[in-house]
Amino acid sequence: MALYNLSEQLLQDIGKQIINGDLKPGTVLPKVETLSKNRGVSRTVVREALKGLVARRLVMSSTKVGTIVRERSEWLWMDPNVLLWASESNNQKLFYMQLLELRLAIEPAGVHLAAQNATEKDKEEIRFRYNQLESSFDNVLEWPNADYEFHNSILLAAHNELMLSLVKNLREVLIKGRQINRNVNKSLSDDEERYKGLLLHKAVMEAICAGDGQLAQEKMREQLLRLVEIVKAYPS
């Protein structure tokens, strides 16, 4: 196995332990030599993995103490790996609730901007993505991606590069969250209730295309608050 793959695997293993709380803030990691022996890999592999952890601010290196796990508030949360590890952790419910709180802060503003800034081409793309979403309503595998692309088309139409860049970092966990939401929602409610969610998407699309930012914002917020109730039903 290539050096990169070995160091990447070690990075993943230790990163997940930190995010999961198995290695708590303040914990001093074993020395490079010890990790090398315990994991059956070279010291170079260990050093590369530790560099990855340092880059994500999960650990800090001290010449006197060694490699120390940092406080959660210091982690580089917007790193795609950190986000993905958090989405698979024991605190999955808390993570997805915080993700929804972030969406509530961003997406209502995003749809309002889209209603103001969308070109005719943007509107065509939003309609196209909504039609794809509607077509995937009964397809558990296709829905998460179709839903993400619909919301992404709206953010593209907002023409705010900073907002778009932030959400792109969240892509994998947003799709994964939609998969979980779909499964939980299906177990809690009938198709009529799920169809209400689809209609809210349609209402957002129509409001944006009509240039009604206030209505688009209201409907998006209503949809996200509906998802909050679904996340509350996640197993603890």
From TrEMBL:
Keyword field contains Repressor: no
Q: Which UniProt keywords apply?
A: DNA-binding, Transcription, Transcription regulation
The cross-references to Pfam families, in alphabetical order and at most eight, read: FCD, GntR
Q: Which GO terms describe its molecular function?
A: DNA binding
Write down the InterPro entries for this protein, in alphabetical order: GntR_C (IPR011711), TF_FadR/GntR_C (IPR008920), Tscrpt_reg_HTH_GntR (IPR000524), WH-like_DNA-bd_sf (IPR036388), WH_DNA-bd_sf (IPR036390)
What sequence ranges are listed for the domain HTH gntR-type? 4-72
Q: What is this protein called?
A: DNA-binding FadR family transcriptional regulator
Q: Which organism is it from?
A: Aquibacillus albus
